[in-house]
What we know:
The chain is mostly beta strands. The chain contains no helices and eleven strands. The strands form two sheets. Strands 2, 4, 5, 6, 9, 10 and 11 form a seven-stranded mixed β-sheet that branches. A hairpin with a 4-residue loop joins strand 7 and strand 8 (77-82). The mean pLDDT is 95.
Amino acid sequence: QVQLVESGGGLVQPGGSLRLSCAASGTIFSINAMGWYRQAPGKQRELVATISSGGSTNYADSVKGRFTISRDNAKNTVSLQMNNLKPEDTAVYYCYYGDVRDYWGQGTQVTVSS
């Protein structure tokens, strides 16, 4: 089993920054991908960014140039640095770990509002 615990969400003004962190515990294989997804009210969950064990990254077009994903394989953590936040970034953000099945964290709320 794998447990994912997110932290770092909150309320921020447009143009501001937040950093999300996710700690994974249990049977973790660093070869597997980790990442972040988000779900806004009334919308489907969507990919934000993923990162492979070797550091290859993939971003949604809407966040390219503003968000940066990173991971620490030794600590089993993945982080998401979010800069120049916009109101449309408001959502619950979920940490993701991919193995023979998908694992999700409980989610952390990010609200971008003035």
